[in-house]
Write a structure and sequence with these properties.
This protein has 19 helices and 19 strands. By secondary structure, it is of the alpha/beta class. Strands 3-2-4-5-6-7 form a six-stranded mixed beta sheet.
Amino acid sequence: MIGLPVHLRERNVVKKDWRKVRLRIALCYPNVYRAGMTSLAIHLLYYLFNAREDVACERVFYVPQEAPRSLESGQTLDRFDVVAFSLQYENDYARAVEMLIRAGVPPLKANRKRPWVVAGGPCAAENPFPMMPFIDVFHIGEVEPVSDELVDALIQAESPASLDALLDSHFFLAGRSGAERSLVKDLDHAPHPTCQVLLERPYPPVLEPTFGHSLLVEVSRGCDRHCNFCLTGFQCSPRRERSLHTLQQIVDEGTRCTGVDKVALIAAALADYSQLGELLDSIVSRGLQLSVPALRADLDLSVLDTLLRGGQRTLTLAPEAGSERLRTLVAKPIANETFYETFKAAIAKGFSQFKLYFLVGLPTETDADVEEILQFCKTLIDLPPSRHRLHVSAGALIPKPHTPFQWYGLSPLKVLKTRIAALRRLGRLGRIVLDLTGPESSVVEAALSRGTADLAPVILAVAQGGQHSPSAWFRAARASGIDLAAYAERASSPDEELPWETLDVGFKRNTLWRRYTKLD
């Protein structure tokens, strides 16, 4: 990670006169610029807040060892009325707290009067409790229906009590027994940012967002497949689509405003879009390039030609497991033969790069199941004419709140180390690049995902130290008297009240429990 250039040149930046607004919001992404500007959530929030004349919203990203400053005016966080964090990943919690510390903002809300510190994103709705001592208000769910309500409350409130009185049940803060998610019912009538902020060329490659110099377009939201491990499928259900006509309007307006010639489609279940072929054809026929997320192996193969015409050379699939038995267990019952046939078709069309995602540490997993991942990949890499390459990513199953796995503890660290070590043998096959998440990092994520406020001292210690490696987390946990691995590995009993169950994100406990009891 590197610091940001002093004179970062961007297109479509919004700069406002602070003297003419009532609320100044620092929109913070607690990780590097490249990651933050890949997030459509940052573009959406930037658009929603700045659409109001009485608000000035400026972006702030994490820069190691530096006091964070906004890109628009160079102001530090303590100069803003509100510090708003988008919490996308648990391992960024300590970076969020570190940003407050380095800006001179008291990290603990008990010691702070201003600025207000608010948070939203999937982690806020998943389980806000580890971050409760630091955050004044959590928004639960999708922001579009409540953004104005939140801004109005932040302008008017004089104290936490008055803030509580001004916010409805979609917000979670101290003193409340629970909250319920807000939900966009009709994506066609929901705002979508089109004049997105993009870097002006040339710029350092390390700053380039994941999808390159492209317009981010959200096709659908949520997924009705409900794979047992997937937080998005349960937290964002039901699945909703934008119409083809609306998406074409977004693409036309967005490419005019940004000047880009590439569109990155965003969706948890793009292959399920009802008019996928027509959408891809529409984009490519406009002379634009394409970038698409992971697709299901049982997709309509007729779209492969269009993807190639749109410049897509890598096909990303998520088998999750090498064995059909485990795929069925996680509610993703796709046969090996379906993957093989999709690979053959893609290779015949001209795809030369493939990316695969796997999970280890699944319930009932055995050594033989991990060996099946190796055999599965060997079969794929050996498909003729044997010139294609595989990028294999694998990590541990993190048992997420609000999913059927919420009662399941993380697989023991010793087991995960064995599993990951076995997968390293894939590197001997040639034409395979490995991206394996360290088991210790998975322990940290699992603990934060399923933890309570007793992890706040650990988060604070890591933030104060400014080092975010797994070893830093383990040291901080030991100093607080917490065995991080045991904490993450602990399974919950059927009659245990789980802390995050005070949040209603759309699925009842009984529904999740019935699915959990079918896992053995």
